[in-house]
Amino acid sequence: MFCFAALLGLLAAGLRTIAVQKARTQGNEVATMAMEDLQRFSFNNLLECNPPANPPAGFASSVLGNCSASPLPYEQPGDGTAGCPNTMPVTSSPVMKETYTCNRLNLTYTVRRYIAWADPGQTTKRLAVFVDWTDRVGQHEVSQQSSLRAPDRDAIIGLSPPAITAANATVSCTANCVPAGTSGVMITGNQGTMMTGNSISLTATTQNMAVGDDVFVTLRTLDSSGNPQSSPIQLTSSDGNSWTATMTPTAPSAFTYDAGQQFVTVTAERAGDGKSAGALAQVNGTSGANLSFCPSGSACSMSWLPNFMANQTSITSSSGTFALQPNGGLPGDLTVTAQTQNLTPSDTVTVSFPTQGGSIAVSLTEDPTLPQNSACTTSSSTPVCVWSGKILQSSGYKFVAGSTPFYLIGQQIISSSGGSVDKGSTGAAIYTVTFS
């Protein structure tokens, strides 16, 4: 009797051990399924709607999303009875379920999942799964962890993007000054350097930036061969918020300018994740104003200056709407059309615009088939040209909803044949599109 009792005890202990091991195996399988379920989601959709009450170590920096729907659009990773199959695709339910239960082997497995940022720049997410259950010998827990890095810059939605809240270009002059009422500086000729006594003070105020990031102003200048180029002027900061620089005839360089008008564009780029912001600086306190470069002895009202004709610029969408895609992409191709004076087919017209990945420039071309372009030649005293170009949806540019400025720049290219308006000058205009 004692032998049989001992044998039964050993058999019961063995069965208990097997049951515990089987339960643990099932717990590990549930955890693996829960982790694999997370890995179906895109980087942007890995988030939590509610902050966890007691996150595990290393998961305090939760990735929280704006989950405004009621009820919350949770996926259904388990039905509680049949081994927790995935019963709802991610595409129709983009929010993961933080907690749920699975029933296996007459045991209830409780699954908890956590998503947290793994780096200060918020470009990598940490994933964790914890599975708890109680069997005849007590409570148990297994866990798995993984990480996922953003596949590209457009997928990084972590840190709030940089913002330029104020930008100014203030012209000062003590000698060789432009006529009163003109926001500009005097240069030594139609193509020349800034004259002595002129200076430009550049300031910008930003948000979500640090001292090691980049803020710069871009102006159109000429290289040593007289070809147009873009020249950045770096601004510096001691606190990451207020940025300044001063331009003089020799600092930061003795740039050569075309006579004419330019926008003063400011760009902020964050080093950590590559996000950027752009803005148009006020010139002498006036929003949307141009900065003039006037040849010595000129009244800054040269008749040959390029000009974008009023109410003759348009931007249309092939989809008929400016409602952005959920990821910020264009709803269709954008067609930009502009009519100019004092630009000829040999000159250049570009349109620049801010995107989530930085400022982009697209060239426009003169269409010789249009009847308006019959006098679009250098021989005309006041040539009028119509230019057009496309911003393709397939380019993948991502925009932010709201009012978006498109900056048009016209540049006269000096040719050997010359002409009545061939002076190498510039002109600028703004067209605004409201994306929804």
What does this protein structure show overall?
The protein has 436 residues and is mainly β. The chain has one helix and 25 strands. The strands form six sheets. Strands 18, 19, 20, 21, 22, 23, 24 and 25 form an eight-stranded antiparallel beta sheet that branches. It is elongated, with a radius of gyration of 32 Å. The model has no long low-confidence stretch (mean pLDDT 82).
Give a short account of the largest sheet.
Answer: 8 strands, antiparallel
Shape: elongated
Structural classification: mainly beta
Oligomer class: single chain
Query: What's the alpha carbon Rg, rounded to whole Å?
Result: 32 Å
Low-confidence stretches: none
**Number of separate structural domains:** 3
Termini separation comes to 84 Å
What is the overall pLDDT average? 82
Name the beta content range.
35-45%
Brief overview:
This protein has 436 residues and is mainly β.
Keywords:
eight-stranded antiparallel β-sheet; elongated; 436 residues; mainly beta; Immunoglobulin-like
Question: What is this structure's SSE topology?
Answer:
Layout: H1 2-38, E1 99-104, E2 107-117, E3 124-135, E4 138-149, E5 163-173, E6 184-187, E7 191-193, E8 198-207, E9 214-222, E10 228-235, E11 242-247, E12 256-258, E13 260-262, E14 265-269, E15 276-280, E16 282-283, E17 291-295, E18 307-308, E19 314-317, E20 334-341, E21 348-355, E22 358-366, E23 384-391, E24 402-411, E25 426-435
